[in-house]
Amino acid sequence: MAEPKMLDCLNKIRNVLKGTITREQVSDWAEIYVSADDPKIDDDQVWDMLILLSGIDLKDSPNSYLHPVEDLNDWLEEYK
Q: Which domain of life is it from (predicted)?
């Protein structure tokens, strides 16, 4: 499994915002790396982003996400 790059992570967020991928799909993708027995992520910022993305699908109520669209835009700005 190839190590993800920051661009991969940012593109996942962009695709969620465009509606071409679901939050659940992104969370599942990130969780593969976060839950690995021996994750091979050398870039600390990528690791931090993967942790964020593994929770991108968390809900704070039945109809709303814990991380609203504004958070996703903030992540794009912070990690670009």
A: Bacteria
